[in-house]
Amino acid sequence: MNQYFVYILLCSDNSYYTGVTNDLERRLFEHQNGMNPNSYTHTRRPLKLVFHEMFPDVNQEIAFEKQVKGWTRVKKEAIINGDWKSLPRIAKEKKQH
After folding, report:
1. Above 80 in pLDDT, residue 78?
2. Which of 14, 23, 35, 52 could form a disulfide with 7 if both were Cys (CB 3.0 to 4.6 A apart)?
3. CATH 3.40.50.300 fits 4-71, yes or no
């Protein structure tokens, strides 16, 4: 069975990086060791994995990653804290501003 992951890293500058992979352990190693000098995370190490969600289907994974990348920091922090129930309220509050 294939596994695909959407993950969020907390960077040393307190920003978040959202990514996708089919091998979470390998991808984290690449980020932590600066394997790609042109990547967003390269100059923001050390990094901390703060969220990951597994998907059995690559299309679901890609769709969720795109969704999360468009979210505010508050929404990302809600799922990082496991507070999925607050997402509708946060979205509603954002629309009111």
Report:
1. yes
2. 52
3. no
